[in-house]
Amino acid sequence: MKALVYQGPGQKAWTEKPKPALQQPTDVIVKVTKTTICGTDLHILKGDVPAVTPGRILGHEGVGVVEAVGPAVQNFKPGDAVLISCVTSCGKCANCKRQLYAHCSDGGWILGHLIDGTQAEYVRIPHGDNSLYPIPEGADEEALVMLSDIMPTGLEIGVQYGHVQPGDTIAIVGAGPVGMSVLLTSQFYSPGRIIMIDMDASRLELAKQFGATDTVQVGAEDPVGKVMQMTQGLGVDVAIEAVGVPATFDICQKIVAAGGNIANVGVHGKPVELHIEELWIKNITISMGLVNTNTTPMLLKTLRSGKVDPARMITHRFKLDDILAAYEVFGNAARENAMKVILSA
Ligand code: NAD
Ligand code: ZN
């Protein structure tokens, strides 16, 4: 089969790999019908994620059709259309019982990291029963792909960890696909005001279309001064970091109101400065973590009810065979105005 293979920092190839086979009784082999490229794939390609070694097939988002199931798989059979979760987990261990699927003691593998991923014609999904979801009939497959990672990430680590409440003033720093997913899912909880902060004017414009009430353009405006002015010096109830650099975590520390929450979603490659001396006196709660995809069932329901349409994030479409061209576009996201790129088999 063809697959997108990481070949070491700066190197990748769309090349022939053996079709995956069942290894464990709980495995499912899925024929990938739609997948994407995520910002994390670009980090891996730069060599910023040393845990990913050359030879790895990238990709952790996708939908597909079940090709084969191991003898212990109960929920799926060949021919079933499935949504692939970016995290594979047994569903039975102590951490899985607490819905901490990213910390499954028999997996917790993120596809395209320590095991092969979805940017391929076929993918092996360990613990298929707990790591795949049946696709409801008539569902928009492109919207569903946004439920593999970015939508649960935004909802779980941004909105739920940040305890967004009705009427709250919230700020989201970072208007990439993850920040946009925070923006879309925060609206389930009816915040009164949503301030989107980014340096890219076109992404801020899109954020307004997605429901941001205010935007702040870093570079052109002073984000801290502007947010404090907008909130009469009080700051925001919830500050959500969706970039992963020290400067944006710092903005969150400065704009959070007394008694507020900072929810850190971004993956930080470098240490950040934690200003406990300023935060303690404001009674701030800080949260962070890996997506568990435990909100996927809830997101499937919101999708079905028409409450949210994450497919609005898709700006570019390619055939899976043209994945190298898709990487070119996504790698120059700012120049190409790319938000989410979909690849179809
Ligand atoms: P992205 O790179 O597409 O978007 C980041 C946005 O931040 C861009 O719009 C960029 O213009 C903006 N930005 C960069 N520097 C900035 C600055 N100094 N001030 C203001 N804005 C700035 O990334 P993404 O795919 O949306 O992902 C966002 C973060 O979420 C990444 O760190 C990613 O690794 C992380 N992530 C975390 C989890 C999790 O489980 N917690 C899951 C998926 C992704
Ligand atoms: Zn488990």
TrEMBL record:
<protein>
    <submittedName>
        <fullName>Zinc-dependent alcohol dehydrogenase family protein</fullName>
    </submittedName>
</protein>
<dbReference type="InterPro" id="IPR002328">
    <property type="entry name" value="ADH_Zn_CS"/>
</dbReference>
<keyword id="KW-0862">Zinc</keyword>
<dbReference type="Pfam" id="PF08240">
    <property type="entry name" value="ADH_N"/>
</dbReference>
<dbReference type="InterPro" id="IPR011032">
    <property type="entry name" value="GroES-like_sf"/>
</dbReference>
<dbReference type="InterPro" id="IPR036291">
    <property type="entry name" value="NAD(P)-bd_dom_sf"/>
</dbReference>
<dbReference type="Pfam" id="PF00107">
    <property type="entry name" value="ADH_zinc_N"/>
</dbReference>
<feature type="domain" description="Alcohol dehydrogenase-like N-terminal">
    <location>
        <begin position="25"/>
        <end position="136"/>
    </location>
</feature>
<keyword id="KW-0560">Oxidoreductase</keyword>
<dbReference type="InterPro" id="IPR013149">
    <property type="entry name" value="ADH-like_C"/>
</dbReference>
<dbReference type="InterPro" id="IPR013154">
    <property type="entry name" value="ADH-like_N"/>
</dbReference>
<feature type="domain" description="Alcohol dehydrogenase-like C-terminal">
    <location>
        <begin position="193"/>
        <end position="301"/>
    </location>
</feature>
<keyword id="KW-0479">Metal-binding</keyword>
<comment type="similarity">
    <text>Belongs to the zinc-containing alcohol dehydrogenase family.</text>
</comment>
